Amino acid sequence: MSKPIVLHIGEPIKYNHEFYTNEFCERFHVVLNDCPDRNTFMQALKDRKYGDFSAIYRPHFQTGGEMGQWDEELIALLPASALGGRGIWYANGTGASDEAVSDTDLYMILSVFRNFTHSQLAARTCDPAQFEEAHRLIATISANPRGHVLGLVGLGRISKRLAHKARAALGMAIHYHDVVRSPPEVEWELGAVFHPTLPGLLAVVDCVSLHTPLTAATRDLMDESAFAAMMPGARLVNTSRGPLVNEDALVAALRSGRLAAAALDVHYHEPHLAAMENVTLTTHVGGGALDTRINFELNAMKNILAVVGERS
After folding, report:
1. If you placed Cys at 108, which of 9, 32, 50, 263 could pair as Cys (CB 3.0 to 4.6 Å)?
2. pLDDT per residue over 131-150, tens digit each?
3. How many CB atoms lie within 10 A of CB 10?
4. Pairing assessment for the beta strands 173-177 and 55-57 based on DSSP bridges
């Protein structure tokens, strides 16, 4: 019996060589894509260059995108009868970055409460006067997170892990809002208080952290009205999707004092926030740890083994 074919797109694996050789390649006939762009890749699909492959393996989201958007034009060429409607299974690498992103959230919570970005900027000037000024000021405008309320917009894997960490390490109370309420046992485990509406959550939290996908309904979720619903001096953390936050409204809230600080790993536009001392900015590296890449690569293989292995 011939092995099912798997089309490998993108770079070769870098980390899980033993699993790739002993488990993955033993179970499947792995064919490497050598087409450098969309047109040649589409032609290869039309010519059945890769055979009747049962799965496509992409080891990481930063590689294997040379064919561009997986739209109807491209999906129609796959050796199957767009996803779901054509009987094609799609599995992503969710879970691989949970630890790294929740750690980033934890860092950002500390930063917005303790004004660490302001302190770092002053220290990097190498100007003794600015150093001393920040040293004196920051102790008068900062607070410990302990005893404060952390609000989570969306209670998924990452925010659940963050809830555990923020409660255990920082002593924060956990409140959340989601379109679907979590079971009582999950709320009990996290010590989490549910709010059926976003304004209801925003009205009681000292810091809100966003953990929701970007959709037409959530774009500009944090707008002028959302910031107006927050307590004066509250804080915002976003490691989810940049367009969840209307940055013009964010700047206005920061300048008015409605928000004390914000931290963004993901951005709508970003440059006009760069000069603000009370805004922590990172370059979309929330999940950017070696562990994440190792897990993405491994989980993608395990997903294919679980699905194709069961059907063949």
Report:
1. 263
2. 999 999 999 999 999 999 99
3. 18
4. unpaired
Distances (CA, A) of 46 to 87, 95, 202: 19, 34, 52
Residue 62's pLDDT is what?
A: 79
Q: Which residues are catalytic?
A: 241, 270, 284
Claim to verify: residue 125 and residue 251 sit in the same structural domain:
yes
* CA 250 to chain CA centroid, nearest Å: 20
CATH of the domain at 21: 3.40.50.720
State whether 222 and 272 are in the same domain.
yes
> Domain tally for the chain?
2
Residue 223 and residue 270 in one domain: yes
Q: Judging by DSSP bridges, how do beta strands 29-32 and 173-177 pair with one another?
A: unpaired
DSSP string, 148-206: PEEEEES-SHHHHHHHHHHHHHH--EEEEE-SSPPPHHHHHHHTEEE-SSHHHHHTT-S
32 and 54 housed in the same domain: yes
Please give the order of strands across the beta sheet that includes 5-8. 29-32, 5-8, 55-57
Q: What is the mean pLDDT of the chain?
A: 91
Q: pTM for the whole thing?
A: 0.86
Nearest C-alpha neighbor of 236 from the set 281, 191, 182, 285:
281
Q: What's the mean pLDDT in 47-69?
A: 87
How does pLDDT run across 231-254, given as a tens digit for each residue? 999 999 999 999 999 999 999 999
108 and 48 in a common domain = no
Question: Residue 10 has which token pair?
Answer: 């993108």
Non-local (6+) Cβ contacts of 312 within 8 A are: 4, 54
